[in-house]
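Tip: read the tokens left to right.
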């Protein structure tokens, strides 16, 4: 890793965790933590600089501190501190443009890591069963965070062509979950009752926040022998879960709704601030999305510690039991089966959970 690392988006929990972690690496002499809002969590010994990446101040920071590694984490789906969707989009797109412009002018920057998302593939009814890094989306995202990530990656590719001497790594993370996850999908799974689309049971993948930190560290280091951490990589845990399986493991009942009704429910939830039930999240909860991780394993050389199921289990434990916890549901099934009219009067048996 470079001696001086600049990290954006440190006011969020994920950015704060990454800043605290890389300071323990012996190769790192200094960490410059940047965000427009002062973080509520500790950043260890990092130097915090309050700066808006949408403003042309980053070039001065890169020059003053001779930054050689830039980790751009300020590409997010949710506003921070009561911001609006407009401010999020400006930070994602305009902020990335300003950052790339500053990196292009800097002679010291040698490595750039960008946090992206599998949202770039969209979610459509005719999607392939599995997306690879080179699979074009069947339907380009028309708005929201998904469109932001498509634009961000386009600017990053342009930067990579203009500065071939800089190692550029784009990490397309699947849905990030864990005890400290602060994402739209985590907010959705925290609802007491989960609205779903009638007739659909999408396949979902999750990546644990601990794996996210580890992958970011690998991307920020010089590559180990036999690996390459320049390029674009899908990052997620092994396996898939159906939305119905997720609901059962959380112990939360589902309410299947027709598409117009669930769109109305999503608007209502956004209005009261319970969750950002955006159109792109609605498409994900309708059609799902699954990506291949061959490049993550074979080229980047990383194997996640958590599978999709293990990631979701850790998240579920942090949220506590729902209205229909699996153990209570199993007991209710046993009692119903023991009724004479249904079970023939036989003594109850232990049901499989």
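Filled-in amino acids:
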């Amino acid at each position: 890793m470079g001696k001086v690392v600049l990290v954006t988006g440190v006011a969020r929990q994920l950015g704060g965790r990454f800043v605290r972690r890389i300071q323990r690496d012996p190769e790192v002499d200094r960490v410059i933590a940047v965000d427009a809002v002062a973080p509520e969590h500790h950043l260890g010994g990092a130097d915090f600089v309050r700066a808006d990446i949408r403003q042309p101040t980053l070039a001065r920071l890169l020059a003053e501190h001779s930054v050689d590694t830039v980790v751009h984490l300020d590409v997010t789906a949710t506003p921070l501190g009561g911001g609006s969707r407009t401010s999020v989009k400006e930070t994602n797109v305009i902020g990335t443009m300003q950052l790339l412009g500053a990196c292009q002018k800097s002679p010291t920057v040698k490595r750039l890591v960008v946090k992206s998302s599998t949202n770039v593939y969209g979610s459509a009814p005719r999607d392939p069963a599995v997306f690879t890094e080179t699979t074009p989306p069947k339907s380009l995202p028309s708005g929201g965070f998904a469109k932001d990530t498509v634009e961000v990656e386009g600017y990053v590719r342009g930067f990579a062509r203009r500065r071939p001497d800089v190692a550029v790594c784009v990490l397309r993370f699947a849905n990030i979950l864990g005890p400290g996850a602060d994402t739209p999908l985590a907010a959705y799974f925290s609802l007491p009752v989960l609205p779903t689309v009638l007739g659909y049971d999408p396949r979902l993948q999750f990546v644990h926040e601990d794996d996210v930190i580890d992958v970011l560290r690998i991307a920020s280091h010089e590559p180990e022998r036999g690996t390459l951490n320049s390029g674009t990589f899908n990052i997620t845990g092994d396996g898939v879960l159906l939305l119905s399986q997720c609901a059962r493991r959380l112990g939360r009942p589902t309410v299947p709704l027709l598409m117009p009704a669930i769109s109305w429910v999503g608007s209502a939830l956004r209005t009261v601030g319970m969750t950002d039930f955006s159109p792109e999240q609605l498409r994900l909860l309708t059609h799902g999305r699954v990506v291949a991780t061959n490049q993550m394993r074979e080229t980047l050389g990383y194997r996640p510690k958590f599978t999709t199921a293990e990631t979701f289990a850790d998240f579920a434990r942090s949220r506590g039991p729902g209205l229909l916890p699996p153990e209570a549901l199993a007991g209710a099934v046993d009692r119903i089966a023991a009724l004479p009219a249904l079970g023939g009067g036989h003594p109850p048996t232990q049901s499989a959970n």
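Residues 85-105 form the longest helix (21 residues). Residues 11 and 40 are 7 Å apart (CA to CA).
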